[in-house]
Amino acid sequence: MGKFQLGEFEEVVMLTVGVLPKEAYGVSIKKEIESRLSRKVSVGALQSALKRLEKKGYLKSYEGKGTQERVGRPKLFFEITAEGKEALQFTRKTRNELWEEMLNLALDVKYSSQ
Amino acid sequence: MVEDQHTLPSRLAERFLTAVCKRDLIEEILGDLHQYYEESAEKPIWKRKIHFWFHVLNFLRPFALKNLGGDYRLNQFGLLINYVKISWRNLIKNPLSSFINIIGLSFAIGICLVAYAMLEWDYTKDQFHENKDEVFLATTLVNRNGSEVQYGSTPGPLAKMLKEEFSQVSKVCRVKDAKVVMKYQNKVFHEEARYTDPEFLEMLTFPLKWGSPASLKDPNSIILSEEMSIKYFGYENPIGREVFLVFDPSYKKAFTVAGVAEPFPVARTIDFDLLLNIENVGLVSPNTDFEAWAASVDATFIQLNDKSDIDFIKQNIGKYILSLNESQSDRNISSLSFEPLASLAHRSGDIVNSISYELPPEKMTLPVLGLIILIIACFNYINMAISSATKRLKEIGLRKAIGANRRKIIIQFLTENLIITCFAVILGIVLCVTLMLPWNNMLIFKYYFGFDLALELLDMKFWIFLLAIVLVTGIASGLYPSLFIARFKVTDIFAGSVRYGKKNKLTKAFLLIQLILTSISLTVGVALIQNTTYLRNSSWGYDQQEILYVNTDHTAFQQFYNLIEQNANVLSLAGSEHHLGATVAPQRVMTKKDVYEVHQLLVDANYLETMGLKLKSGRFFVRSGDENALVVNEMFLKNLDISQSTGQSVELDGSLYEIIGVVEDFHTFNFDFAIRPTIFMLAELSDYKYLSIRVRNDKADETYKELEQHWAGLFPEIPFQGGFQRDILLIDERANEGAKFILSIAFVAVMLVTLGLYGLVILNVAGRNKELCIRKALGANIINITKTIAGQYTILFVTALVIAVPLSYFAAEAFLDLLYFYHMPVSSSAILFSVTILLLVLFMVAFTQVKKVSGSNPTDGLKVE
């Protein structure tokens, strides 16, 4: 099903938006990914992923209030849409199916080879 | 204010981002960036700023770029892909004009690439030496007839003196070249040996493949070039093998191979075949004492610790020159000059007897020809593009109607042109590598350098050059047509009122220039070929046809002489130290008025008669008693302003010589060189190096074979070396090959002009199809149609030829002057030839179209579907 196509990074971004209800905007998403996955995220990569997801209709955005540290510029918050949720669930389902089948077959191989 | 400064990490970055980023994204991203900036307050401010800049640039991806004013986008990949697609379709749709454009440009680019390979060689030669800036060639400046002449050869002890007197000089080395016979098992050949100090391999960068450079210290070791190693030993490692150097039939010495050099870089002017310790030079010429100031070596190199020390040496060299001249009265050195190795080759044109060399001035022929062909090909493209725009009027109109502006149309047509140029470049590289370069190497470079020129496809510079060629030709040929096409108004296009192409003045001007350039290159080519024939038949000033010569030395001479004397075909024999066409010695002659530079040949009493030199007054030498006599040529009398021919005395090496005879002028060397004042004097038997033999008519080939057999019988260890005097000037081969090359490039030009003209006439006829049909329907005959089609071109051709004839004449004359000191005047037949060829081109092209039109049915052209 090409309908719900999510790249690895896109998926991570979506999930991170999901764990930050009402608080998901550029800076917080970046920090959250960096701390949870212990990897560096560049602003450009994150922003282009967010814009792409928004274009696909998986995320929607709304403006918040500006703060002093942002020199009065508003934050742009993101939240998952219904379609986004469907896409995540689809991804999870397919991954789970794969995991289960692999557990039965492939993990034996792993133990025996050790 | 302070806080403001604090919160704005970089105004510039912010402004930049605002300028290129989509407006609806700016607020958010700038907010984010400021927040990062604030939160990383513990880091130093410069780090935070760099971080800020980094993220600004990192953010700029295609999705974030804004449209820049009007309809001009920063990223218009879609449109670009459309341009490529349309260009491709056009290429396929018009195979004829695509063929003409691509073939023309690729030939031009191919020739330019050959020129590039040559210039690249020229500019990188000898630059591979690691010490090229610290190593200098010592040269002597000598005052001759009022002007300073720079010599690359120097007194032998100079190296030692420089090393001892100047602490700045870290290393010195002398170089002396001499011919030798090398023998390994049954392989025996004549070779050039280079005798030098062990420092040679430290100062110049010639890494060894096998063996150690230090072995040069051992006078019993020999180091070979890779080429020599392969010649004698094949591909195996020859270290430790023993070879013999045969210095004369009675003396040979064994040497151990102690090193083989890596292949030399192609861009070099200095190298070696055999490298030997300079102590061995005594074996070649036992009478020369290299510690004496009178002896000279072929080169003296010095190496400094710091290249700027050369100024100190230059300033303090004066006092040594004084003492140097005292020991050598006639040498008259005015000063020493030091040439850095890095620029030595380029200066070598002005240095007499330089160890390095510079390409002759005619090296510029190739780049000039390449440029001419490139211009012709570009003009072809421009003309075709303008004329064929007729077919694309609707496309242009449509594009404009749906919003393409001028800039878009220009970019579209330039893109098309760049695509064609790219095809041409690919084909050009193929042509160059497979056809032109091997051919050129075969014809020209082998003669000049003895090695092949190659395109370094992996070199960065090559790709930069290629890119430059694509851009320059692409834009030069594409800019005008695209500007021209973009100018049309939509309403005019659809109203059908755009009128152009048939009478475009620029098209005609371009055709005119093409014809003139073609005519010039044709005339030069033909004049060169004619000149070769002329030189082949012109007199050398002596009778070269029935003379053979043999390289020998004084021990072999007498034995061989006695044997050959009995041969029935031999008319007369002569020995000499120098030989016409091969070697002369520079010599200085003093009269009461001045000192003059002359060529000196030391010969025996029979030489002048044997060579067939023509006596003008006085007499030739007699066998004895003429030790202080001179025979001179006419040029000698003329230059030294001696009115009375014989009986005069001049001073030479401190003693007086009487002129006993005058011979008519003759060509000692090629026709490239002027005839110099020349003197003949009697040589010592121990100095004989040549045996000249006059044989009966038509017996030269037969006798030559006999000579070889006799020599092999007498001296089995020394290969025979000799030849026909008629081949000694190498006129035919070299000049002929050069001429052939230029003529074939001229024919490429003719081909391009033909193709270009053909394309133009076809488009012209196609555009006037209705007119021609109506004319036919109304009764126009073939003459009438020919007039209609060819009329405007005939006028153009006549104009072009009127301009081209004098230009061609002067160009050919100037080119021959550059190549030869003596050449034939440019003949009218050379010019006539190029005129005929060009008129033939016009007739042929016009004929094909006239035939097509007169054979067609006018109703076909007039009916409307």
Count of folded domains of chain B: 5
Number of domains of chain A: 1
Please give the radius of gyration of chain A in angstroms. Answer: 17 Å
Low-confidence stretches of chain A: none
In short:
Chain A is of the alpha+beta class. Chain A has helices at residues 8-19, 26-37, 43-56, 82-113; strands spanning 59-66, 74-80.
What does this structure look like?
The complex is a heterodimer of chains A (114) and B (865). In chain A, α1 packs across α3. Chain A is an alpha+beta fold and 114 residues long. Chain A has a two-stranded antiparallel sheet with strand order 1-2. The model of chain A has no long low-confidence stretch (mean pLDDT 83). Chain A has a single domain, classed as Arc Repressor Mutant, subunit A (Orthogonal Bundle), CATH 1.10.10.10. Chain A contains 4 helices and 2 strands. With 865 residues, chain B is of the alpha+beta class. Chain B folds into 5 domains: 63 residues; 193 residues, no CATH class; 221 residues, no CATH class; 160 residues, no CATH class; 182 residues, no CATH class. In chain B, strands 17, 18, 19, 20, 21, 22 and 23 form a 7-stranded mixed sheet that branches. Chain B has a 6-stranded mixed β-barrel with strand order 4-5-10-7-9-8. In chain B, β17 and β18 form a beta hairpin. The N terminus of chain B is likely disordered.
Could you give the topology of this structure?
The complex is a heterodimer of chains A (114) and B (865).
Chain A: H1 8-19, H2 26-37, H3 43-56, E1 59-66, E2 74-80, H4 82-113
Chain B: H1 2-7, H2 11-20, H3 23-39, H4 45-59, H5 77-93, H6 95-124, E1 135-144, E2 147-151, E3 154-155, H7 158-165, E4 169-184, E5 187-196, H8 200-203, E6 208-211, E7 221-224, H9 226-233, E8 242-248, E9 251-261, E10 274-277, H10 281-284, E11 296-297, E12 299-304, H11 310-316, H12 318-326, E13 333-340, H13 341-347, E14 351-352, H14 365-388, H15 393-401, H16 406-449, H17 460-486, H18 490-495, H19 505-537, E15 547-551, H20 554-565, E16 570-576, E17 585-590, E18 595-603, H21 607-611, E19 615-618, E20 629-633, H22 634-640, E21 649-652, E22 655-663, E23 678-682, E24 690-695, H23 700-714, E25 722-724, H24 731-767, H25 769-777, H26 782-819, H27 828-855, H28 858-862
Parallel strand pairs in B: 2-14, 5-10, 7-9, 18-23, 20-22
Antiparallel strand pairs in B: 1-2, 1-12, 1-13, 3-11, 4-5, 4-8, 4-12, 6-9, 7-10, 8-9, 15-24, 15-25, 16-24, 17-18, 19-22, 20-23, 21-22
